[in-house]
Amino acid sequence: MASISLDPRSNLQVGRNHDQQHGVIEEIEGLIKVFKDGHVERPPIVPIVLCTMGLERGVTANDVVVDKCTSLWARIYVPSCPGKLPLLVYFHGGGFCIGSAAWSCYNEFLSNLASKANCVIISVNYRLAPENRLPAAYEDGFNTLMWVKQQALLNGSSEDKWWLKHCNLSNMYLAGDSSGANIAYNVATRLGSRGPSESTIIRPLSLKGIILIQPFFGGEALTWSERYTNQPPNSALTPSVSHAYWRLSLPFGAKRDHLWCNPLANGTAKLRDLRLPTIMVCISEMDILKDRNLEFCSALISAGKRVETVMYKGVGHSFQILHNSQLSQTRIHDMMSHLKAFINE
C-alpha cells in the first residue's frame, strides 16, 4: 500500500469560499475545520472504499446498520476458516474527529488482520466530534455490543446475521488504535465497573481481552516524549494536533485531566476496582504518546491487571495505517503476529 500523506499543503483549497464568509474557530490544518456557524469540513485525505474492495484473499466483508437513529453502522470482516472464530470489535483512530470504517487504510488493515489472526472483525463507524462530543463515541461502542447481543438472541434468519454463525461469542475482544483504543478502553471500563453483573449485561458475549494500539490519552502536564520527541512532517500526531483533538472532542469546558482523556488523573486506586480481562498495549517508539502509554501500563500493572506490552522500534503513531516509514511493513508483520498470538492464546 502507498503511504498516506498528512501534509496539510495538499488540501489548502478545500472550503476556501466558506472561509471567506464564516470565521474558522478551530482548525487542524489539512484535516478538519470548524466554523462559527457550526459547519465542519473534513478534506478527503483518505479514499472511502466499498466493503468489497481491496480485501485479503478468502475474506468476505459487508456493511450493516446498527442504529438508524444515530446513523451508526459497522463493517464486518469474516475470513474463510472452519469452526467458530473469535470476535474482535474494532474502533478506528482519528482523534475522535476524523476517520471512517470505510477508509481504505482500515479496510486493508482489518481484512489483513481477519485473515492472519483468523477472527471475525466488526469495525464500528461511530459518531465523530465536534458534532457529537464524548461520550457519544463510547455510547456507540457500547450500543454496538448490545446490538451484537440482540442479533445473537433473535430468532429466525436475517441478512444482517450472515456473519454470526462464524462467531464464538464467548471469545470476544475489544480493540482500536489511537482514539479508537481510547474508546475500546472506556467501553471496557464501563462494563468492568458494573461488577459481577457484567456477564448478565452482555451475555452471551464474554469479553476475553482488550487490545490498545497506541492509545490516545492526554493530560494537562506533558510527558517527556510529548515535549521532546522529534516528529517528521508527515507525522500523524504532534502535541498541537493532540491538544486540538481534545478541545474538539471533550465536553465543553472540560480540561485534559478529564478522566476520558487522562485515566490516571485521579490516581490508580479506582483502577483496582475495575474488572478487566488481559490488556495488550502496542506502543510505538517514535510516538509522542510513548511515555504516556508506558505510564498507563505501569499503573494498570500496579493495580493488579494483566498487561502485555509490545514496543515497536523505529516507527511512530499509526504507522500500521499510514505506512509512512521504511520500517512500516516489517513492523506491521510483527504486529500481526503479536495480535494473532494474543487473540488465539
From TrEMBL:
Q: Name one GO molecular function term.
A: hydrolase activity
Residues in coiled coil: none
All copies of the Alpha/beta hydrolase fold-3 domain together span 88-320
**Which residue positions are annotated as catalytic?**
178
Q: Which Pfam families match?
A: Abhydrolase_3 (PF07859)
InterPro entries, per the entry: AB_hydrolase_3, Carboxylest/Gibb_receptor, Lipase_GDXG_put_SER_AS
Mind telling me which PANTHER family this protein's record contains? ARYLACETAMIDE DEACETYLASE, CARBOXYLESTERASE 17-RELATED
Under what name is this protein listed? Answer: Alpha/beta hydrolase fold-3 domain-containing protein
